[in-house]
Fold each of these.
Amino acid sequence: MEGLGLEQLRVLRRETLEQEADLSYLRRLLHGRMDILRAELDRRPGTGPVRTADPSGSDPAPGDLLDRLPAILTDAPSTVRRSARHVTLGPPRTRESRLEADALMGDVQLADLAAHPAEELLAALERLRAYEREVSGRRQRLLRTADGCNAEITRRYRDGEARVDDLLARGPL
């Protein structure tokens, strides 16, 4: 990154963070679909719980899946301490993320989960899990690139290679 100009670093950081926001959105879609599939499988007698252990220790609530959707899709408070990052709360710039998640579901449609045997739901769940791991790896690489850009930009200002006055003279970003 040292070979890039300051403006090139800023562009790389911005593009990297935009791509990361798209992948973050895709991950949220994948997690929501995995949660719904697990809830449907947990609801069925004889399939056993497929959900990872609930920190509250409560069993999956009985009842209609649609009625339970708000509880299924609500995240428990995180016990992991993370650095603060700006989170984009909109859909991605392209429709690719939603289409990718749809394609991974295969023939399993969320609107009609009861019509599918447990084996199909488990297969769809495993496809989503595998893809989520791959997306998470891509996202982590993008975050490392953005962090590297930030570190290099900071170093340049700290070492006097870049000046705040030059940035301010350019006017609003």
Note: The mean pLDDT is 80.
Amino acid sequence: MTNTAEDEQRWIAETLERLSHSQFRAKFQLADKDRAYARAKGKATIDRHAHEMLHDRVGAAEPKNDGRQTPWRGHPVFTAQHATATCCRGCIEKWHHIPKGRELTDDEVNRLADLVMAWIERDLVNHPVR
């Protein structure tokens, strides 16, 4: 089954809404420094970073230091991963129903990266340049 762009947008909106009900997930927002970085680098670069970080840090069947591999700060994608429960395989399993113990598919990495990017874009819109 292939998902249409409309299906993906609906899934992203519903997932962000579901995550917003978690007191822990809802508290995250980008630091001013990370917002400035995201704006300076642009969407295409941050999107590439999101794909690379998700693939490299949580894509393996058994990622190194799973549960502790995603820093809390230092890059917009790191913060977004915690906000979107894409920070470790345990959170990915709990929130996105992708089982641990097997490598993420390219489609799964792409979908999770799209979620991360939607969260970052929403943060940037909600915190315009002063």
Note: The first helix runs from residue 5 to 20.
